[in-house]
């Protein structure tokens, strides 16, 4: 019975809606996957699936010529007479027989070099032919997981909504899209998604949009997180060796040169594989190239294989990309991921210029009913037939989705999970109503992740309660969260309680109302320059007391929303009562004879005097964030911002303290900040973070309200980049209530320099050069210079960094080594 069921699925996926269909195989009858098939002298085509099946719609009946193109096989042009549809056409392809006697292999006169030089010389002319076009676009993406464990960190992962079988293997993602696209090089895009389908979700929208499919080898570099060097880039000979392996003649009597692309240095951001160049026009005919994970600093990625095929139109004499595939293999701990993206471009219309305002900040728009297309639509229009596995996945996942989203099923699952047991008083408890989409949770008393140590509270831990309602989050972006956190410090023997309310109104302008209140301990520097994890280790192991705390009792209300494209405004009014705190414990695991410093950052050896007097005031905060050139994607459920990396982000802030118990605590504070990443092609990225500010009427304000700068006295870094920290600056040494200017810049070569240094290139790391400066009126300028290596580690785990730092303030201040442990971010 199962065999008949699969046969029916196969027949359904290979239905009678297509106008022309068939199977492509080799001479032995083996199916050939991803063969490019197109109507001669048009950009109407498709590709075969993994089982060699294909189907597509012809523009008209009568005499037609259909071209079958597959690398390594002779291109076939088949003349057919179509009187009725559908038309069946099965093809057996013959392997290309290459005559190597025409290819002269000579170290002094390598023919591949002349071909590549010609391709480079004609790059501009060839790419200009496809500078502007309209086209139809189809994409399909599938991801599979193999050998997934039953649990990760003690938590069951289940079958991922029916994706995995008992061995932890199965399709975890399958989706398709149809789009209408308008594109102008280098990066102007307008895309309208007309159809979208996601396996296992009747309301889902696929993320397989055209925006992520443009890989143009006529450019000098291709962006894969790191700028990869094109085999026909201006500087390609610095990175590649080439070998002309063979030539063959295509269906239009063009000579095609098959050139092997060989990396000169293993650790460089380079491709390996083959590029096919058309003789005389020197246009790209096809690419078949591998991208190794370590070359783009993605260690969990094994390899990506990118294939592109181009077709020729005699009327406009343009070689245009008609199919593209990207195949991915990755994994760790014995778990394997495989993925495949297939793209089909058809019905090109090449134009000289677009109408004004064709391209706006809206890159992608998904039509309202794009996810409501039925199976008849997909069977009639899908250019690549589904495989039996894909057809089975759609039917099975859609069936599972209906069952698992039914009220009966959700109630049964909730009933099982909502059962209360006395042990959950310690471990935590969650009550969930999936039908009404709300939940209530209690964190328990064994929240070990929150356990930390400081000299004011000693050991302390958190617990809490949370109510969440997400009934309209998917459709309208509305959700509500109400939570409370309980923190208990053993040395103080004190419980502190805070509460929070958040309500987001939509996914269009992200209007959000929030309220907070309660009692808590806060660091003098609100940016929390030392984390709980690092402070706990530093205190218990080395008896350092870097975290300086005060007691805050407050109630605040705030509101934020996007007020224009790329402009977000956040306003908050906050009543605060501040009280100084003192050390309550001298406990440590080691260095017991040493003394902790006091909790007063202004007088570390004064254990009696507080850093400020108890007082209260009200603060008004306004913050505007401006992303220049902001782009966005529109979906029926909301608007999703896409930051334009060509431009910086600007922050403008104003803080005013009013209604204090004494006038001296009131002040005005203006501040601004600019962040920017300058992409230097394949030469790396230069990050920049500039801050400046000015206090007014602030001569006698509390030390809490000073501008504090993010120092580091632990020699441990836990962020991926050091663009917001001085790594040798004592935490409160340069705090100010006047004007200030702060600059951080960091250059990451992305391997451009380090890959060329013998021995060091074996590390497959990146070189980091940094400079940091701070200027305040009452202190000499403080500067730091750094040099380091990032992306260090073992095997696939590259989460370490090491930097040498020198600091200057009124001459040489000191030097040291900072060890970056980026995985500590996970623990926070």
Short overview:
The protein is mainly β and 828 residues long.
Major beta-sheet overview: 19 strands, mixed
Strands, total number: 44
Shape: globular
Unreliable stretches: 1-18, 100-105
Amount of helix: 10-25%
SS class: mainly beta
Beta content: over 45%
Total domain modules: 4
Rg value: 31 Å
* Span between termini: 53 Å
- Helix count, per DSSP? 9
Mean pLDDT: 90
Walk me through the structure:
With 828 residues, this protein is mainly β. The protein has 4 domains: 17-92, Immunoglobulin-like (Sandwich); 111-402, no CATH class; 473-660, no CATH class; 666-827, no CATH class. It contains 9 helices and 44 strands. The strands form 6 sheets. It has a 19-stranded mixed β-sheet that branches. A 13-stranded mixed β-sheet has the order 16-17-18-19-20-21-22-9-12-13-23-34-35, sandwiched between helices. A hairpin with a 5-residue loop joins strand 37 and strand 38 (685-696).
Sequence-ordered SSE layout with sheet pairings:
Elements: H1 2-13, E1 20-26, E2 36-39, E3 45-47, E4 53-56, E5 62-69, E6 76-82, E7 87-88, E8 91-93, H2 111-121, H3 123-128, E9 132-146, E10 151-152, E11 155-156, E12 170-184, E13 188-198, E14 221-224, E15 226-229, E16 240-249, E17 255-263, E18 272-278, E19 284-292, E20 301-313, E21 318-332, E22 335-350, E23 362-366, H4 375-381, H5 388-404, H6 407-417, H7 424-427, E24 429-433, E25 438-442, E26 452-454, E27 458-469, H8 473-476, E28 479-489, E29 494-504, E30 512-523, H9 532-542, E31 549-564, E32 567-580, E33 615-627, E34 631-635, E35 638-642, E36 649-658, E37 667-679, E38 685-696, E39 716-717, E40 740-748, E41 766-776, E42 779-794, E43 797-809, E44 812-821
């Amino acid at each position: 019975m199962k065999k008949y069921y699969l046969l029916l699925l196969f027949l359904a996926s290979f239905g009678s809606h297509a106008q022309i269909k068939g199977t492509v195989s080799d001479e032995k009858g083996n199916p050939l996957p991803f063969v490019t098939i197109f109507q001669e002298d048009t950009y109407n085509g498709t590709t075969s699936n993994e089982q060699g099946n294909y189907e597509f719609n012809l523009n008209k009946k009568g005499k037609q010529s259909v071209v079958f193109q597959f690398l390594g096989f002779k291109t076939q042009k088949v003349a057919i007479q179509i009187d009725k549809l559908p038309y069946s056409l099965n093809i057996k392809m013959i392997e290309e027989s290459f005559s190597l006697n025409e290819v002269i292999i000579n170290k002094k006169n390598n023919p591949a070099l002349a071909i590549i030089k010609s391709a480079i010389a004609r790059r501009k002319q060839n790419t200009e032919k496809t500078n502007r076009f309209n086209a139809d676009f189809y994409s399909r993406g599938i991801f599979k997981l193999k050998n997934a464990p039953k649990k990760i960190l003690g938590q069951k992962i289940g079958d991922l909504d029916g994706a995995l079988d008992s061995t932890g293997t199965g399709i975890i993602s399958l989706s398709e899209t149809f789009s209408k696209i308008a594109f102008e090089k280098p990066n102007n895009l307008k895309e309208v998604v007309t159809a979208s389908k996601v396996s296992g979700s009747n309301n889902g929208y696929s993320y397989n949009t055209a925006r992520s499919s443009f890989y143009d080898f006529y450019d000098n570099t291709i962006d894969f997180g790191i700028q990869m060097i094109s085999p026909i880039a201006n500087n390609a000979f610095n990175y590649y060796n080439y070998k002309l392996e063979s030539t063959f003649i295509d269906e239009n009597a063009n000579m095609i040169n098959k050139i092997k692309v060989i990396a000169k240095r293993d650790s460089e951001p380079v491709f390996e594989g083959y590029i096919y160049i058309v003789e005389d026009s020197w246009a790209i005919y096809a690419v078949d190239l591998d991208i190794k994970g370590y070359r783009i600093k993605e260690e969990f990625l094994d390899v990506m294989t990118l294939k592109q095929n181009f077709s020729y139109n005699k009327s406009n004499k343009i070689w245009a990309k008609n199919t593209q595939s990207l195949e991915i293999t990755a994994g760790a701990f014995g778990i394997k991921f495989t993925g495949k993206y297939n793209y089909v471009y058809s019905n090109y219309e090449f134009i000289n210029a677009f109408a004004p305002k064709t391209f706006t900040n809206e890159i992608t728009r998904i039509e309202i009913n794009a996810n409501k297309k039925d199976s008849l639509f997909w069977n009639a229009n899908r250019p690549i037939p589904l495989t039996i596995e894909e057809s089975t996945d759609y039917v099975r996942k859609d069936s599972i989705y209906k069952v698992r989203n039914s009220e009966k099923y959700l109630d049964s699952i909730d009933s099982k999970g909502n059962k209360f047991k006395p042990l959950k008083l310690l471990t935590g408890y969650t009550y969930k109503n999936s039908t009404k989409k709300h939940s209530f949770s209690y964190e328990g008393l064994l929240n070990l992740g929150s356990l930390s140590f400081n000299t004011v509270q000693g050991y302390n831990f958190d617990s809490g309660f949370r109510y969440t309602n997400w009934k309209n989050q998917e459709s309208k972006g509305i959700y509500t969260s109400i939570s409370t956190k309980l923190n208990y410090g053993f040395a103080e023997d004190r419980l502190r309680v805070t509460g929070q309310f958040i309500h987001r109104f939509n996914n269009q302008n992200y209007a959000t109302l929030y309220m907070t209140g309660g009692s808590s301990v806060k660091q003098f520097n609100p940016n929390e320059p030392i984390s709980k994890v690092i402070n706990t280790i530093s205190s218990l192991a080395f008896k350092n007391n870097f975290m300086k705390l005060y007691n805050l009792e407050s109630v605040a209300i705030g509101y934020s929303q996007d007020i224009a494209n790329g402009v977000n405004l956040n306003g908050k009014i906050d009543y605060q009562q501040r009280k100084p705190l003192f050390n309550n414990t001298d406990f440590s695991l080691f260095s017991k004879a040493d003394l902790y410093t006091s909790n007063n950052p202004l007088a570390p050896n004064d254990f009696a005097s507080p850093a400020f007097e108890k007082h209260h005031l009200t603060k008004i905060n306004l913050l505007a964030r401006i992303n220049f050139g902001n782009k966005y994607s529109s979906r029926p459920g909301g608007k999703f911002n896409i930051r334009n990396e060509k431009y910086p982000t600007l922050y403008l802030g104003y803080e005013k303290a009013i209604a204090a118990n004494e006038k001296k605590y009131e002040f005005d504070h203006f501040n601004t900040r600019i962040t920017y990443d300058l992409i230097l092609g394949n030469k790396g990225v230069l990050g920049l973070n500039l801050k400046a500010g000015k206090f007014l009427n602030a001569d006698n304000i509390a030390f809490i309200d000073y501008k504090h700068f993010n120092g580091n006295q632990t020699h441990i870094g836990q962020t991926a980049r050091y663009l917001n920290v001085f790594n040798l600056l004592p935490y409160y040494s340069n705090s100010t209530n006047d004007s200030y200017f702060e600059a951080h810049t960091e250059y990451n070569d992305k391997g451009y320099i380090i890959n060329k240094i013998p021995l060091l290139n074996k590390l497959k790391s990146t070189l980091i050069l940094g400079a940091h400066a701070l200027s305040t009126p009452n202190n000499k300028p403080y500067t730091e210079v750094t040099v380091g290596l990032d992306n260090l580690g073992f095997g696939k785990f590259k989460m370490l960094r090491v930097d040498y730092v020198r600091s200057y303030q009124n001459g040489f201040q000191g030097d040291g080594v900072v060890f970056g442990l980026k995985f500590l971010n996970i623990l926070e």
